[in-house]
Design goal:
- This is Glycoside hydrolase family 128 protein.
- GO terms for molecular function: hydrolase activity.
- It comes from Lepidopterella palustris CBS 459.81.
- InterPro entries: ASL1, Asl1_glyco_hydro_catalytic, GH.
- Helix 3 (about 125-135) packs across helix 4 (about 155-165).
- The protein is about 30% helix and about 20% strand.
- The chain has helices at about 40-45, 85-95, 125-135, 155-165, 185-195, 215-230, and strands at about 5-10, 30, 55, 70, 75, 105-110, 145-150, 175-180, 200-210.
- By secondary structure, the chain is of the alpha/beta class.
- The protein has a six-stranded mixed sheet, with helices on one face. A three-stranded parallel sheet has the order 5-6-7, with no helix packed on it.
- Helix 5 links the parallel strand 8 (about 175-180) and strand 9.
Length: about 230
């Protein structure tokens, strides 16, 4: 989990929230506030910021942004066997009834990935059963539903296919999140593959970055991807 700028395509995430090259209402933020750097919270919600929404890998809004104009997008991060009740569904429903502007939700952070790399490591059949129980009912409240946010590895496509098979028609996401860590050419190719595989869903880029690169190279990568996403 890393603070980053995002934008639904599409949704853009950047490891460099500085020097935004363009302005877009698509841009949001994936960010977990840190007590070590509390002044960072003011940057994202400042008058000069063009961010419009955020998520924090959880389903309760960050206390730093409770009075913010940023729209909160809840996420059901993972799932476990034997979980009782519907805490995600109950929380989001309660927030909406209390007046919160929740129009999108996200589901399952890298369920095909291991915990050591930030993945939620959820079997596809368990994710499908949890989705039907805790996420699909939100459609009746007018909420748009995000598909599980798998990794950019080939295993991501396999996991998603297994997920939809296990759903047996009971899961109807509106958009599919994309995670990618690599160069621009690989990112563009991966996005194209996702769009070709799921032509009826919007694509959101909810995590991406260029690992192990210096500042200048990363800034160039950010500018290139920002322009690409905006187009």
């Amino acid at each position: 989990m890393r603070p980053t700028i995002i934008l639904p395509l599409l949704t853009l995430l950047s490891t460099l929230p500085l020097a935004l090259t363009t302005s877009s209402s698509k841009r949001g933020l994936v960010y977990v506030p840190s007590k070590k750097h509390p002044t960072d919270d003011n940057i994202w919600d400042s008058p000069s910021s063009d961010l419009t929404w955020y998520y924090n890998y959880g389903y309760e809004p960050s206390s730093s942004f409770t009075s913010s104009s940023l729209e909160f997008v809840p996420m059901l991060w993972g799932a476990t066997d034997g979980q009782e009740g519907t805490p995600f569904l109950d929380s989001v429903t309660s927030q909406i009834k209390s007046g919160a502007n929740i129009t999108y939700v996200l589901a399952f952070n890298e369920p095909d990935g291991e915990a050591s790399t930030g993945g939620s490591n959820v079997p596809a059949d368990l994710a499908a059963a949890t989705w039907i129980k805790q996420i699909e009912p939100l459609r009746k409240l007018g909420v748009k539903l995000g598909a599980p946010a798998v990794t950019g590895a080939p295993s991501g496509f396999t996991w998603l296919q297994d997920f939809f098979t296990a759903c047996a028609g009971g899961c109807t996401p509106d958009f599919v999140p994309v995670h990618w860590y690599g160069n621009f050419e690989g990112l563009a190719s991966h996005v194209g593959q996702v769009m070709g595989t799921y032509p009826n869903m919007t694509v959101w880029i909810t995590e991406y970055g260029l690992p192990n690169s210096d500042l200048a190279t990363t800034q160039t990568f950010y500018n290139q991807t920002s322009s690409y996403f905006d187009r």
